[in-house]
Design a protein that fits this description.
The protein has 340 residues and is of the alpha/beta class. It is 28% helix and 27% strand. The protein has eleven helices and 15 strands. Strands 3, 4, 5, 6, 7, 14 and 15 form a seven-stranded mixed β-sheet that branches. The chain has a six-stranded parallel β-sheet with strand order 10-9-8-11-12-13, with helices on both faces. It has a two-stranded antiparallel sheet with strand order 1-2. The radius of gyration is 20 Å and the shape is globular. The mean pLDDT is 93.
């Protein structure tokens, strides 16, 4: 297969709004040692992409300056010492940047086979959020069967991944949404209950649903005043995972209550972590979750798709917080997206 020297990509012209995302021709990357080159069919849109566009989330040293942290596509070339894959394989991958493009070079340890029967656009919705929640909620917070899990932003990417992972592990997810229209979606992907925070008291509803026990694990993307709510809603010995701070990066915490409940509060940023750490997360997903995702009837994420050149539209929709599931950019010009 002959590859062109350049490719179509979406770059950030300058920090600012969605209009700063501009399609242009750029040099095609070459896979380095231990990397594979993927012809991108679909790329997921995530909160960190928006932060990078605004100038608040710089790429780590050596990473592509292009946005895009997850893709699905076909391997077209291998770098030196890259193992475990071959050209022609259909894969999904966590990238270190550069996903908004026709090609991206990715460390082989961050690449996984696509679930059987999935389309590119569906598979591209998994890596960023599933890597994040596998590390923070499963490996670090120790999510187990029958635990109560409170998932803020239940209809979004992180919330959806939280609910689906909880369901696979036999935990009991309570989704928090900003309006009642998103409740049906959360139930469909495995939530046992849904709280509409626009009209319901989160703490009281959690206490009622758990018969006074509280939430054993809480995944928060809201921040700000929600931090106090989380501590009040948590069960004794609970663990609160802070993933984002959409409504405020500072909080006033009831520290005595946090101490009395023996709570853990942890935060994480995935992108700067080492290739070895990300490879370990990928291995866990491949062993423990990928077989279940490949079974007939497995729950798949809700997606909305845009051509790569319309990345600005996707960012504007994500900022409106009116979407459900994941927003996906498609690079396939012929529209071919057959399941595996």
């Amino acid at each position: 297969m002959t590859l062109s020297a350049d490719m179509l990509a979406v770059a950030i012209a300058a920090p600012g709004g969605p209009e700063m995302l501009q399609a242009r021709r750029v040099p095609r990357p070459e896979p380095g040692p231990g990397e594979v080159l993927i012809r991108v069919a679909a790329a997921g849109v995530n909160g960190p992409d928006l932060a990078q566009r605004r100038g608040h989330y710089d790429p780590p040293p050596g990473a592509s300056p292009l946005p895009g942290l997850e893709v699905a596509g076909e391997i077209v070339a291998l770098g030196a010492e890259a193992a475990g894959f071959a050209p022609g394989e259909r894969v999904m991958a966590l990238t270190n940047g550069g996903g908004y493009a026709e090609y991206v070079a990715v460390p082989a340890g961050q690449v996984l086979p696509m679930p059987q029967g999935w389309r590119f656009a569906e598979a591209a919705a998994l890596p960023e959020t599933w890597f994040t929640m596998t590390q923070t909620l499963v490996l670090r917070a120790g999510l187990e069967q029958d635990m109560w899990v409170l998932a803020h932003g239940g209809a979004g990417g992180i919330g959806s991944a939280t609910i689906q992972i909880a369901a696979l592990l036999g935990a009991r997810a309570i989704a928090v949404v900003s309006d009642g229209a998103k409740a049906d979606y959360c139930h469909a992907i495995g939530a046992e209950a849904v709280i509409d925070r626009s009209r319901e008291d989160i703490v009281e509803r959690v206490k009622t649903l758990t018969q006074g026990h509280g939430a054993d694990r809480i995944v928060d993307i809201v921040g700000g005043d929600m931090a106090r709510t989380n501590i009040e809603a948590a069960a004794r010995g609970g663990h609160i995972v802070q993933i984002s701070t959409l409504e405020g990066g500072n909080a006033s915490l009831p520290l005595r209550l946090l101490m009395a409940k023996d709570l853990t509060l942890s935060g994480s940023t995935l992108r700067p972590q080492s290739a070895a750490t990300k490879a370990g997360i990928a291995a866990h997903i491949g062993q423990h979750f990928l077989p279940a995702l490949s079974r007939p009837g497995a729950i798949r994420p809700a997606i909305a798709t845009f051509p790569l050149q319309q990345a600005a539209r996707a960012h504007a929709l994500m900022e409106s917080r009116a979407h459900r599931g994941k927003l996906i950019l498609l690079t396939l010009q012929d529209g071919e997206d057959k399941p595996t």
